[in-house]
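cache lookup: miss for this entity combination. No prior model stored, computing from scratch. Input as submitted by user K.M.:
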Amino acid sequence: MAAGKTENGAGVSLDRMIQPMLLLLILKKPTHGYELIQSFNALHEGEIVEPGTIYRNLRRMEKEGFVLSSWEAAESGPARRKYAITGEGIKALQEAMLKLKQQKRQIEDFLTEYDILATRGSINEN
Amino acid sequence: MAAGKTENGAGVSLDRMIQPMLLLLILKKPTHGYELIQSFNALHEGEIVEPGTIYRNLRRMEKEGFVLSSWEAAESGPARRKYAITGEGIKALQEAMLKLKQQKRQIEDFLTEYDILATRGSINEN
DNA sequence: CCCCCATATATGGATATTGCCTATATAGAA
DNA sequence: TTCTATATAGGCAATATCCATATATGGGGG
């Protein structure tokens, strides 16, 4: 797949969903990368996302103007970079939602095609 | 940019669905690459898939044991490599379907989350 | 005081995948 | 002969993720 691992051979995991998912979380509550990682992994049990992937996507989205960051002191531990979504980011999120709806439809159509064949028994002769 | 296009920033087009889609088409009717390209593009109007991508995935799937090919003379024009699915290929297809179902659910959950926010009006203040 | 751990951010290298371009080859039509 | 349709395939550039690693702050235990 686009990179690394992808040995799966089928499907997308959450791959390209990461950016819109991050945007939605930030829209709900502006916060920093470390907390986003935790929210992410709490929300999708079993599916762990690499911290590097989160931080890289946050930096990238700031370059693209979808989010803005500002340093913030923590009560304890190192400073955090707090992210907030921009108007551009909201637009990007809306467009992403439309694409995801299309993808959902594509997957549904494909699943339907498969189920028709499976019902006819073309598949279960092992 | 070149590969993966992905300038979209959100979404996967048909990306990782290519292999299972090819397997399903071959399962329905063993055939050669050129016809698969046409079936593919006829089925998904507007979404054109690169011939190179199809041929590459077919060669790769043969290496992995999901399909078997044999040369066949055409009535006119160059010889064709006809593909048939194997038992391994059917298993791989079944696993891919399970993953796609999971992905569909993930997308649905995400869309629902978004819609809740949109309904509350957190998004349409432009 | 020093070491370890949790918190917090970030980058480099390896690997994988795809789009675009190009190369090869056969055979019928103009 | 040249053009087009059929048919397969590889090189290159771009991109994305994973894995490992680097850096840094501050609290607790010894």
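stored under new cache key. Residues 1-6, 13, 15-16, 18, 50, 52-53, 56-57, 74, 76-79 of chain A lie near DNA strand D (CB under 10 Å from a C1').
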